[in-house]
Amino acid sequence: MSRRARILALHGGLLAVLFAAQFVLPAYHHGNLARIMVLASYALGYNLLFGYTGLLSLGHALFFAAGMYGMALSMQHLEAAPAPALLAGLAAGIAVSALLGLLALRTAGVAFMIVTLMFAQAGHLTILYFGEWTRGDEGFVIAATRRVLWGIDLADPVSRYFAAWGLFAVCLLSTLWLVRRPFGKVLIAIRENEERVRMLGYDPFLHKLGALVVSGTMSAAAGAVYGLLFGYAGATFASVQYSIFPLLWVLLGGAGTVLGPFVGTLFMFYLIDLASGVTTAYMLIAGVVLVALTLFAPQGLMGEVRRRLWGWLP
Amino acid sequence: MEIGPYIMLASLEGAVTAAVLALTACGLSLVFGVMRVVNIAHGEFFMLGAVIAWWVAQGIAGHPALGFAAALVVAPVVVGAVAVAADVTILRHLDYDPERTIVATIGLLYIIQQLTLMTYGPEARPVQAPFSTRIALPWLEHGPEGWQVIWPWGLGTTTYKLAVIGAAVAVLLGVWALMARTRIGLLMRATQMDREMALAFAIPVERVYALVFGLGAGLAALAAVLIVPIQQAHYLMGGDPLLLSFVVVIIGGLGSLPGTVLAAVLIGLSDGIISVFFSPTLAKILATLLVGLVLVFRPQGLFGVRAP
Predict the structure, then answer these.
(1) In this structure, how many other beta carbons lie within 10 angstroms of the beta carbon of residue A276?
(2) CATH class in words for B3-130+157-297
(3) DSSP three-state, residue A65
């Protein structure tokens, strides 16, 4: 098989398996997998910036929350229908990521990490500050009767699974497409050596900004869909923890691989799910995995697979 | 109460915040300055100091001052030892790479926090102050009979709060003397300036790093022991000191100790006064935005000088 055919077979195969899985899975795992696919879309967005462009952001919850609140607030206070509300979420994601990019990309390395962390923290606090509209930490529920998109009832488990699968497929395929385009190749080159890219005549700032906006928009799309499918928006989704999660998922699955974010989200979700059955201190698992990964496996699971088995993995 | 005494009260409370903040931020700044490591787990070392102070104070019977004095020694030493262990087992193996150490210290944050939750539990617990006499403060007022001294209700402080300020000043002077006047301070400064050159001069850089990481964590723990009779020990108490330390260290200029202390006084005092007029959440929003914007537009800090 040619390289191209292998790549298509592997990623198409994963999507087909996920599509088929809903007919055999028990209800509990069925619901979990829908959630995992939405969160994996968030991780895919994060991976584009961290894994492919080499920019480590500690503030992606800002984009996730921008999408979620852009959608939820316009439904709650402007009486918007789901479709325009989703578009409002996407628009909020684009605007916030472009603004953050224009500011934060003036810095690099450790300063970039702290700047993104601080702006995301400011975003989280702003949501708490305007508690009158956002209901702060408590959050608000979007009634099931209003979550009907083009006649499809998104509160129903089957259609919810389909919607999550659709979002995941779009994010996965567009990442795959993007990283094999010249634009994606320049991003990888920036990760490896920014000065050399500049010397070759590319504008690193514009490429990084593009990567940040695409990544932020993907994260916002995941946030908006998450809110719509599960009918809830709360300030927790804007907290530091939700900035750390995609980092954890991507590191575990393998930064800079297209499949890594899904694999990492799947493993981490079930790990935390198991741990929270045993103790309330389930975030201990997240801490231990983070330290262990940075120490022993900075490549992550799919990174190891690429290194040992399939060198052609995108 | 009128506005004048109100501001005086706010700045007295602010001075206590500033004193504790200066100690915590100094630890963070020291670690960043010498090791170039951004320690996200710094707030958890603070929390650990407070929790250990509670354990020690519980374990020692007799006058509360005895338990407090023991905590003042035990907590920083234990937390320093934990930090040294973390440095030797984790950070050293990452070769102090800035980005990977940040990820590792985030992991460390969750490990320390969640282990505390499992052992100490989710309750907030107080430690009794060794001494706490109330001092009422006078205020001048212009009345019908000219200037007169009044004693407004609620305007006052405690001896313990004044002692916290004094202790913080003493410790900061000690840190300064350690850095400027001793041989180990010289080794630290040499390592800070040029790691490679320090290695070439046979300075045991790895041991200096372990010492600095332990010292930084110890300072945070000491600050926590000082504040725990005023606040309470809780497993989530590390978040605010971490955020404020970041604000202070970045505004004061990364890795500059005098800038850090100056910024701590400024932020501590203004935090007290701003919280009187605005909501604490709004004050925090402004502080975080300030840090982000300072890093973007003035990375050397407000008081720093741009490197040539």
Answers:
(1) 13
(2) mainly alpha
(3) helix
CA A117 to each of CA A62, A244, B222, B288: distance values in angstroms, whole numbers, following the listed order: 9, 10, 27, 9
- Give A129's contacts in chain B (Cβ within 8 Å): 279, 281-282, 285
- Assess contact for B201 and B30: CB atoms under 8 A: no
B279 touches A at CB < 8 Å: yes
Name the burial class of residue B169, with classes exposed (0-12), middle (13-18) and buried (19+) by CB atoms within 10 angstroms of its CB.
middle
Torsion sign (Cα): A84, A85, A91, A93: negative
Other CB atoms within 10 Å distance of the CB of residue B72 = 18
Tell which B residues from 6 to 35 touch A, by Cβ distance under 8 Å. none
Under DSSP, the state recorded for A19 is H
- Which residues lie closer than 8 Å to A60 by C-beta, 6 or more apart? A42, A45, A46, A49, A116, A120, A215, A216, A219, A242, A243, A246, A247
Contacts with B107 from chain A: Cβ below 8 Å: 286-292, 294
A125 touches chain B (CB under 8 A): yes
Q: Say yes or no: ipTM exceeds 0.95.
A: no
Residue pair B265/B244 in contact by the 8 Å Cβ criterion: no
User: Is B283's Cβ below 8 Å from some Cβ in A?
Assistant: no
| Residues in contact with B27: Cβ distance below 8 Å, sequence separation at least 6, in sequence order | B42, B45, B215, B216, B217, B218, B219, B220, B223, B245
Per-residue pLDDT in tens (0 to 9) along chain A, 314 residues: 677 788 888 888 888 888 788 778 787 888 888 889 999 999 999 999 998 998 888 889 999 999 999 988 888 777 777 888 889 999 999 999 999 999 888 887 778 888 898 899 899 989 888 877 778 777 777 776 777 777 677 777 888 888 899 999 999 999 989 888 888 888 888 888 888 988 888 888 899 999 999 999 999 999 999 988 888 888 888 888 888 889 888 888 888 888 889 988 988 888 888 888 777 777 888 788 888 888 887 787 777 778 777 777 77
Task: Sketch the domain layout of chain B as residue ranges.
Answer: 3-130+157-297
Cβ pair B110:A290 closer than 8 A: yes
| Amino acid type, A261 | P
Task: Report how far residue B57's alpha carbon sits from residue B139's, in angstroms, rounded to the nearest whole number.
Answer: 37
Of chain B, the end-to-end C-alpha distance in Å amounts to 51
